[in-house]
Amino acid sequence: MADATTPPGFAPPAAPSLSLGLIGNCAISALVDAQAHIVWCCLPRFDGDPVFNALVQPGETGSRFAIEIEHLAAAQQWYEPNTAVLRTRLTDTDGNCVEITDFAPRFQARSRFFRPMTLVRRVRPVHGAPRIRVALRVRYGWGREVPQITRGSNHLRYVGDALTLRLNTDAPLSHVLSEQPFVLTREHHFLLGADESLAQGIADTARQFEQETIAYWRHWSQRLAVPLEWQDAVIRAAITLKLSLYEDTGAIVAAMTTSIPESAHSGRNWDYRYCWLRDAFFVVRALNSLSEVATMEDYLRWLGNVVLDASSGHIQPLYGIGLERSLPESVQPQLAGYRGMGPVRVGNQAAEHFQHDVYGNIVLGAAQAFHDQRLLHRAGLPEFARLEQVGQHAVRVYGQPDAGMWELRTRARVHTSSALMGWAACDRLAKIAARLGLPERADHWRTHAHTMRAEILEKSWSTRRQAFAESFGGHELDASVLLMAEVGLVDARDPRFVSTVAALEVTLCDGPYMRRYEAADDFGRPETAFNICTFWRIDALARIGRHGEAREIFEAMLAARNPLGLLSEDTHAQTGEMWGNFPQTYSMVGIINSAMRLSAPWDSVI
């Protein structure tokens, strides 16, 4: 392999940014930058070793899979409509042009979903005689291990201690190994994946995989019950959420990355490649609103195992995607971090937290399974018995201090959002019991819910702020109280809720954007807006009748997306720049929810 240098005529790697496209197949994923460099890919699953780590290791030392054009002048990038297949066109200063297609195969075969640990890249000349360079730099062990490379007739093997990848390609192997530029005269194909031989020819396999994958995603998108307005944004958000499902177990990750800071040089660098019960509930709820219930069925498999494994009653706020309980947090000092802003963390200490809203999120995530007759596996009495155990623990911990949904590491309070979800658990259990014809259990849970609701409304209300506060007896404001209307604790027209929205806007909003809370946390005061809070504001405004303002803010959030329609966790109010892990499922959920609430109805045009 060539050393990490850039030959004349080829630009050095661009500075990392979040102008990235996501490809994946519900088993693996990768992030592709605007110049068609794969800069992030963890294998053999979402929380694995980043074999391509350039997103958090800037410059020539970062590992990447680049297909570059000499004398690059312009780049265009788009998704094949209604699919997870990404295309990039690179044009040089003389007008020569290439097109690169990226995807991970996903389609039905042999009565199952075929989703191999494989990335497919196809590059074809579009105009002229472009000269390209292929730079495939694999690293293992979080950048520490350079693999041994062996060569076959049409493949290269990247041999590591724990993983071996095979590149099957019809491009000249010598040029790939040396990173030697060459003139692209015909289409070439690259299949990077498990160390296995292909059943068919390289080109035929790549073309078949692309055709079948496009057909799968188009059929999947066709069945979505989308709103009349903003259909492209909703479909892209839905596909992104689907790609966040680890189908093998049913877990849904919060984001594909680790350690993208919430703001510049903040140290707020966390690993989000795990399944938070809170985030997963919102993902399931958003996809359900589009009539995509298969993801919920997959997630309920995972959730059922979490509940059954919780013999002590305590349930963690997050788990590994394989149901791992222990996610010890460590730092990878050999990696510089996003734009050099380390640390790069692996694992998440929040798995050790007590976050009492988790029980409500479990019940809310499972509730539809008791009411929806479309499901292949509807929930019944056995599932309700297990869910009641979750509710019983919600009652036991209700009103006790915890870390809260924002996972504060050094401060415990009786958070309003946690109490709210305790109420939601009891309220939904009462409705499920009624559905199952269990009036005594319905009364039991309804009584708990009634008592909790009265206490929440009393103890979270701050007369001084004329708003519901972030904790019982507190006076600081927190955007999470906007969920009080969304989950049904209060009517959005209640004067106390209307007053709360107004107070939050004065204190937490920077133009259209909304921060999480006003109080300083372990790292000081938050600098960036938290995207899901902005979407909660949009929902609240629509509910209280301020539809025009809600639409304006929603349009601002759509404009804040990257060129491919994806959002990270945070937005800087002054620069509009994205920060935080990417793509953030919470944020993509917000796009769907806001569009569904604000769109004109279909019967207004048909």
TrEMBL record:
<dbReference type="InterPro" id="IPR008928">
    <property type="entry name" value="6-hairpin_glycosidase_sf"/>
</dbReference>
<dbReference type="InterPro" id="IPR045582">
    <property type="entry name" value="Trehalase-like_N"/>
</dbReference>
<dbReference type="Pfam" id="PF00723">
    <property type="entry name" value="Glyco_hydro_15"/>
</dbReference>
<dbReference type="Pfam" id="PF19291">
    <property type="entry name" value="TREH_N"/>
</dbReference>
<feature type="domain" description="Trehalase-like N-terminal">
    <location>
        <begin position="20"/>
        <end position="162"/>
    </location>
</feature>
<keyword id="KW-0378">Hydrolase</keyword>
<dbReference type="InterPro" id="IPR011613">
    <property type="entry name" value="GH15-like"/>
</dbReference>
<dbReference type="GO" id="GO:0004553">
    <property type="term" value="F:hydrolase activity, hydrolyzing O-glycosyl compounds"/>
</dbReference>
<protein>
    <submittedName>
        <fullName>Glycoside hydrolase family 15 protein</fullName>
    </submittedName>
</protein>
<feature type="domain" description="GH15-like">
    <location>
        <begin position="232"/>
        <end position="594"/>
    </location>
</feature>
<dbReference type="GO" id="GO:0005975">
    <property type="term" value="P:carbohydrate metabolic process"/>
</dbReference>
<dbReference type="InterPro" id="IPR012341">
    <property type="entry name" value="6hp_glycosidase-like_sf"/>
</dbReference>
